[in-house]
């Protein structure tokens, strides 16, 4: 709250409501200049606001004219303004001196729980004393607002002249109008407090001795709608409020953007106001002012808006509300940086006055004023005012400098004192001090040297102990003043004049850790209290890193080593084993701050021993205290690798080096190394490959090789090399990918005898010592195949001819298969017999086969034209099989399978048309024709799918992708055969056939003298063969119980002799053990069946992938029809183990049904059979999901038949299904099955319209009957009236007859239609009538719908016992009966003009 005089260059007195406004002078020059204002708010109507004017008498003539700005006080005629929040009746005080200004009420020393008093400051004494004595009527009471306000308590008339205030907290930082106040006026109370204040809108200021004469005060504070005050023309007060005051609220917003926007608008407005300001002439000013009224130079040389804003912003710094302190500080800094009419002394005086501490302040209030002083000084420093050299354009004295040495000394002294007064302010105060030093260093002030001397004298005072803040300032000063006597200043705490020298690191580490010991107190080091740590990193670390890791070309004072500093101060201090979690957290922050500054050369200095240990420990487990910051460190490292790919290799070396772990990602459960590899450039990848290969041999030759460590390291290298290829995030380059494949080939298939430093194979440049073990060679072969599987899965664009381009899998950038490249490397190494040798030498047969494969591959590469795609598939197949033969000579792929594929490739692409006599004769003699070449290849691919290696499976899928264009009917049948269901027991029996044969050969036949238990050991064995393991267990059970099976009489003793060996107790014990053995056998059999079934399901999933590949590549093939029914059979599986397989089959069927392509030349009879079978299955499958899938497939097949001209077959299939739906109660069909057909093929289903009517009469119940008839509405809707208009009209007659018959039967109780179903039928009739009206004439309407029949129908329904209560049914019939009076539309197109004219005449007649 405040009491304000009106200081405005242009002010007009108020008048009564009935007074008219005087006309403006005709001469425009007589009008005062208008103030500039910003359109920052939408214009508001004056009627929306309440602004009180109080006049003390009839307006004089002067009050209705305009006057110059110099005479505005006299023309004000004693006007005062009250706050909208306090519409109390005020009056003027007579005989009070006007030379004294009043400040804000909140400037008084008001504290919680204390009522402060001060002498009352009388208001301005004007010339119209007699007018001021007139009473003023009380204004209308305004509704209270939500803003807090204070209650003012007046003293009795006989008391002292003082104003009593209640116990309140400081008000929030809000726009408050500031009058011209003396510099000595206390302004420290403009602070915000959080406690609630008592609000009394009826109280006001009291003037002793004159209760009825009160002066209105403009009370401003935390109030509502301060920006909504009405704007009064030519009123400076209102212009301030309408332009700048609303912006102060937004300065306190929690939104950073809103605060900045408010600051920009505020500063912009103030700049425009200041640009229009013209200082008053000193002589005229002296004449117009009293001697007792000093004028502040800020008000004298600045427009009132600016002077008010400066004071308001300074006072707002003490506000704790939301983000007031931040917003006000930013605005104040920017304002001071743009003003050249104020000096540092003035602003510092305002700051000191506004932030005075009082003894009665609470802790919160004291903190507020301390922060306000800190922010005020920081604003002065950051605005540059503290070292400004530009002289003031106007000055009340001879001194025109904006800053001085005294101001600088006062600022640094105050900042140091703030830091010493409160430990929690030390860092912030010294940070501001560092800003002042930086500003001084970059300035050109004349007093720079004395200022530096004063700074050093202030900082290196014996009463100021060493702290991180002092270290930061010292480092700055050392860099700015290298010639200073630093050894003298730093002693005895430090040994060297260079603060970052190695000799000072121990004591520096304790200072930065803020944990100095008592012994250090003698050297001036502080003994800090516990709990001084805070999560924000101290600003000293940025200064230290700037010194130790400077930017290129930046000179620094220190000669210290970053490596030594990081080891001593960070690794051995913050990351020591005895450090707390808080210190380690600070250490991680220092690492994050230093990471972007390092180069590739000094990067290893960061990854020290203790740091890596702490980082890995906290990164490995998510329940660790510092897990989040450890993960953030890993993220920062990955981001650094992305922004600087050249540093990725150095990062990996550190993570997997001495202090890291080769299994870093596995150990930390992260993907740090994988992400770094994905960010590296090709040069970095090559360097990493070279580094990995160099780790193959022992690191030191002098020591005795540890084979276990060497093999472990080699296994890790093999995994890392293969991971580079298998990581899909790493961009592949042919050169380094091929170098890895060659290295795996060399160490997996060959033995190196002699090195070659110039060899293109990196594995030949240095011999591995000791040689690779068999386990490592096997690992190399497996990783080779897994890498090729990953490369084969990747696709590239391959141009087959000028008009065709496909996505070919497994090719390099030169369009050659990766597998072919590897085989080429194998062939080149085989030729280099001096340096390498194969692990397994091939015999003559194998050598000839390999030569034949290479020859065939060379021929396949020459194939062009339509067969080129299939030729690429054959090439990939035989090459992949040959490489598998190299990598696993003892695998399941034998030479016969490879020979068959080679022969099939030759027959498929290179067979001659003319055959010799011998070949013709052989063909005639053979009863079975040879299988098709494509069938042989696909059969081989199916065999690949049974393998457990990803290489074989991926190879088979990609080969089939390329061969899909050559697939024939026999090939499709071969694939679909694999999807047939088989009994798990049969599958298990097939798997055990070979084993049972072996057992039978070993055991032979069994004699009939076996015991009963032995005869029934295996019921499934028709030959009486027994499992040897089972025999052994039974024999062991007999032996334990005293009946050794081996002791049986081999010479033919009878059964009696055997029975004598065991008594009853032994027999019971044997029975229990035999029962346990049989249970174990039964469980094992079940488990084997389950495993077999699971393997069969996985195999079918892979085969289904082949089917999906064929359908995607050949959607227009006629063989697609063959696939439908097997997939339907597969999708109907209800077994839980095969649910995934069934869902996958459903997905394939849905993709077929949604395909835009259909077979081009289908076999119509085959398609008809498929449609019939689909409908047959749909009638029996009680699954809504599967029925919807079958419906989509049926529509797909129907589209094929319609395109082929076989619409009748489609109509027949749906007619039979509709008959099943109507006549069979257990039918699985539903109404949607037919609705889908109507929407998709309405013209074909239109032929079933009469069948629908006839079958509705044969419905099994009323529900089916209603559903059947409901099909007619969408059927008629989707039928074109222009093409089938006559048929529709004729059909409407049949529809009406069917509906009448159904309703009649319902009314007579002959069918089971319910009232709801009858209502549906009547709704269908209404639809038919409306539809017929649009296309038929009146005569045709009467013929088709016989409106009299509906009248009769309505009476029947009303007389019916079942429907007489349903009044709506009778009314619907009546409505249908009166439909004949409706005017039909003229949209019908008749065949002849005569019909058209006749129709028009009938329409007119009806009308």
Principal-axis shape: flat
Fraction in helix: 40-55%
Specify the structural class.
mainly alpha
- In the predicted model, the low-confidence regions spanning at least 5 consecutive residues are 1-238, 283-295, 527-531, 913-919, 994-1025, 1045-1059, 1381-1407
Strand content: under 5%
Strand order of the largest sheet: 1-4
Oligomer: single chain
Tally of individual helices: 58
Q: Work out the radius of gyration.
A: 50 Å
Q: Biggest β-sheet: count, sense, barrel?
A: 2 strands, antiparallel
Tell me the span between the first and last alpha carbons. Answer: 83 Å
Mean pLDDT: 75
**Number of distinct beta strands:** 4
Region (Disordered): 1-35, 124-149, 178-213, 983-1064, 1377-1407
Subcellular location: Nucleus
Biased composition (Pro residues): 136-146
InterPro entries: DNA_pol_V/MYBBP1A
Written overview of the protein:
The structure is a single chain. Helices cover 54% and strands 1% of the residues. The chain has a two-stranded antiparallel ribbon with strand order 1-4. Strands 2-3 form a two-stranded antiparallel sheet. The N terminus and C terminus are likely disordered. The protein has 58 helices and 4 strands. The protein is flat and about 115 Å long. By secondary structure, the chain is mainly α. GO terms for molecular function: rDNA binding. InterPro entries: DNA_pol_V/MYBBP1A.
């Amino acid at each position: 709250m405040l009491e304000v005089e009106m200081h405005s260059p242009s002010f007009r007195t108020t008048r009564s409501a009935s007074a008219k406004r005087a006309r403006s002078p005709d001469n425009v020059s007589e009008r005062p200049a208008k103030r500039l204002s910003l359109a920052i708010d939408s214009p508001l109507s004056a009627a929306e606001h309440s602004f009180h004017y109080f006049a003390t008498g009839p307006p004089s003539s002067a009050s209705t004219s305009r006057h110059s700005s110099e005479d505005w006080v006299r023309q004000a005629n004693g006007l005062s303004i009250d706050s909208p929040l306090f519409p109390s009746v005020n009056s003027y005080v007579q005989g009070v001196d006007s030379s004294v200004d009043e400040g804000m009420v909140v400037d008084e020393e008001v504290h919680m729980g204390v009522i402060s008093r001060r002498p009352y400051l009388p208001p301005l004494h004007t010339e119209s004393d007699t007018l001021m004595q007139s009473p003023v009527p009380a204004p209308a009471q305004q509704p209270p607002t939500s803003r807090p306000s204070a209650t003012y308590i007046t003293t009795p008339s006989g008391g002292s002249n003082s104003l009593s205030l209640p116990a309140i907290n400081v008000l929030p930082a809000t726009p408050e109008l500031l009058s011209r106040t003396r510099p000595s006026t206390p302004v420290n109370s403009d602070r915000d407090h959080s406690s609630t204040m008592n609000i009394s809108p009826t109280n006001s200021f009291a003037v002793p001795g004159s209760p009825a004469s009160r002066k209105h005060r403009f009370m401003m504070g935390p109030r509502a709608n301060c920006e909504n005050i009405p704007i009064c023309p030519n009123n400076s007060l209102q212009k301030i409020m309408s332009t700048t005051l609303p912006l102060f609220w937004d300065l306190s917003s929690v939104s950073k953007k809103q605060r900045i926007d408010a600051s920009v608008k505020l500063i912009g407005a103030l700049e425009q106001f200041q640009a229009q300001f013209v200082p008053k002439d000193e002589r005229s000013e002296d004449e117009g002012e009293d001697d007792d009224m000093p004028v502040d130079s800020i008000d004298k040389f600045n427009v009132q808006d600016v002077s008010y804003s400066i004071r308001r912003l300074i006072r707002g710094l003490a506000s704790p509300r939301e983000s007031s302190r931040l917003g006000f500080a930013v605005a104040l800094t920017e304002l001071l940086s743009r003003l050249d009419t104020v000096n540092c002394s003035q602003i510092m005086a305002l700051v000191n006055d506004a932030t005075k501490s009082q003894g009665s302040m609470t802790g919160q209030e004291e903190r507020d004023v301390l922060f306000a002083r800190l922010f005020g000084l920081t604003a002065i420093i950051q605005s540059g005012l503290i070292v400004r050299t530009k002289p003031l354009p106007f000055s009340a004295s001879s001194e025109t400098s904006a800053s001085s040495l005294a101001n600088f000394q006062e600022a640094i002294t105050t900042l140091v004192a703030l830091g010493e007064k409160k430990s929690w302010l030390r860092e912030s105060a010294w940070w501001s001090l560092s800003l002042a030093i930086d500003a001084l260093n970059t300035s050109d002030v004349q007093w720079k040297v004395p200022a530096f001397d004063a700074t050093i004298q202030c900082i290196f005072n014996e009463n100021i102990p060493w702290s991180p803040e002092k270290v930061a300032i010292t480092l700055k000063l050392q860099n700015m003043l290298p010639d200073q006597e630093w050894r003298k200043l730093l002693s005895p705490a430090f040994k060297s004049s260079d603060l970052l020298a190695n000799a000072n690191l121990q004591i520096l580490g304790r200072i930065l850790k803020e944990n100095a010991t008592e012994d250090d107190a003698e050297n001036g080091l502080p003994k800090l209290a516990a709990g001084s740590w805070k999560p924000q990193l101290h600003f000293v670390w940025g200064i230290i890193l700037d010194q130790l890791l400077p930017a290129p070309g930046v000179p620094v004072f220190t000669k210290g080593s970053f490596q030594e500093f990081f080891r001593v101060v960070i690794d051995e201090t913050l990351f020591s084993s005895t450090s707390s979690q808080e210190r380690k957290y600070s250490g991680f922050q220092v690492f994050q701050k230093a990471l972007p500054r390092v180069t590739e050369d000094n990067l290893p200095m960061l990854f020290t021993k203790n740091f890596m240990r702490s980082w890995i420990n906290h990164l490995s487990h998510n329940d660790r205290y510092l897990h989040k910051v450890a993960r953030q460190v890993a993220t920062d490292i990955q981001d650094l690798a992305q922004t600087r790919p050249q540093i990725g290799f150095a990062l990996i070396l550190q993570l997997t080096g001495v202090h890291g772990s080769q299994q870093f990602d596995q150990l930390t459960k992260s993907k740090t190394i994988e992400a770094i590899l994905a960010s590296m450039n090709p040069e970095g990848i090559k360097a990493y490959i070279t580094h990995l290969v160099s780790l193959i041999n022992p690191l030191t030759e002098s020591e005795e090789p540890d084979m276990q460590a060497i093999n472990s390291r080699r296994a890790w290298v093999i995994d890392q090399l293969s991971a580079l290829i298998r990581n899909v995030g790493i961009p592949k380059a042919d050169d380094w990918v091929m170098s890895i494949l060659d290295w795996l080939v060399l160490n997996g298939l060959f033995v190196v005898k002699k090195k070659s430093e110039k060899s293109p194979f990196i594995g030949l440049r240095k011999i591995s010592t000791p040689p690779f073990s068999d386990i490592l060679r096997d690992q190399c072969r497996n990783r080779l195949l897994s890498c090729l599987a990953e490369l084969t899965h990747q696709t590239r664009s391959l141009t087959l001819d000028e008009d065709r381009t496909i996505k070919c899998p497994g090719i390099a950038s030169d369009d050659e298969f990766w597998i072919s490249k590897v085989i080429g490397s194998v062939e080149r190494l085989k030729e280099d017999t001096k340096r390498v040798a194969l692990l397994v030498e091939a015999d003559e047969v194998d050598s000839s086969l390999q030569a034949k494969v290479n020859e065939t591959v060379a021929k396949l590469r020459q194939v062009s034209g339509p067969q080129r795609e299939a030729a690429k598939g054959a090439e990939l197949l035989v090459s992949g099989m040959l490489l598998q033969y190299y990598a696993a000579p003892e695998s399941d792929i034998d030479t016969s399978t490879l020979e068959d594929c080679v022969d099939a490739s030759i027959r498929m692409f290179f067979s001659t048309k003319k055959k010799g006599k011998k070949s013709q004769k052989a063909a005639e003699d053979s009863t079975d024709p040879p299988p098709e070449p494509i069938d042989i290849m696909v059969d081989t691919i199916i065999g690949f799918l049974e393998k457990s290696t990803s290489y074989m499976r991926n190879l088979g899928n990609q080969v089939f992708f390329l061969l899909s264009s050559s697939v024939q009917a026999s090939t499709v049948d071969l694939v679909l055969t694999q999807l047939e269901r088989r009994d798990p027991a049969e599958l298990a029996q097939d798997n055990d056939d070979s084993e049972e044969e072996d057992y039978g050969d070993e055991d032979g036949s069994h004699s009939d003298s076996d015991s009963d238990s032995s005869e029934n050991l295996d019921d499934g064995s028709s030959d009486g063969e027994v499992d040897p393991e089972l025999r052994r267990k039974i024999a062991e059970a007999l032996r334990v119980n005293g009946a050794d099976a081996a002791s049986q009489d081999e010479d033919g003793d009878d059964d009696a002799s055997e029975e004598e060996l065991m008594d009853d107790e032994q027999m019971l014990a044997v029975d229990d053990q035999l029962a346990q053995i049989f249970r174990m056998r039964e469980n094992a059999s079940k488990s084997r069946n389950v495993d077999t079934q699971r393997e069969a399901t996985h195999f079918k999933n892979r085969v289904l992938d082949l089917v999906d590949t064929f359908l995607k590549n050949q959607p227009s093939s006629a063989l697609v029809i063959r696939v439908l029914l097997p997939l339907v059979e597969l999708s109907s599986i209800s077994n839980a183990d095969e649910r995934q397989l069934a869902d996958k089959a459903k997905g394939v069927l849905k993709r077929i049904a949604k395909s835009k392509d259909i077979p081009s030349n289908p076999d119509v009879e085959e398609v008809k059979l498929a449609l019939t079978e689909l409908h047959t299955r749909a009638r029996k499958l009680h699954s809504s999901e599967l029925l919807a899938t079958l419906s989509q497939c049926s529509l797909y097949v129907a589209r094929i038949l319609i395109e082929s001209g076989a619409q009748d077959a489609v109509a027949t299939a749906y007619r039979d299904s509709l008959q099943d739906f109507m006549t069979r109660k257990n039918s699985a069909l539903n109404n949607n099955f037919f609705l889908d057909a109507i929407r998709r093929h309405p013209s074909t289903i239109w032929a079933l319209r009469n069948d629908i009517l006839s079958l509705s009469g044969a419905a099994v119940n009323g529900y089916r009957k209603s559903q059947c008839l409901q099909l007619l509405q969408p059927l008629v809707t989707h039928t074109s009236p222009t093409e089938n208009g006559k048929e529709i009209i004729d059909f409407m007659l049949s529809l009406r007859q069917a509906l009448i018959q159904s309703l009649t039967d319902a009314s007579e109780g002959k069918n089971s239609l319910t009232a709801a179903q009858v209502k549906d039928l009547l709704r269908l009739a209404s639809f038919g009538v409306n539809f017929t009206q649009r296309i038929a004439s009146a005569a045709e309407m009467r013929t088709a719908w016989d409106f009299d029949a509906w009248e009769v129908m309505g009476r029947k329904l009303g007389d019916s016992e079942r429907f007489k209560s349903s009044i709506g049914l009778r009314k619907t019939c009546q409505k249908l009966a009166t439909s004949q009076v409706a005017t039909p539309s003229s949209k019908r197109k008749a065949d002849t003009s005569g019909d058209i004219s006749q129709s028009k005449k009938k329409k007119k007649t009806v009308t």
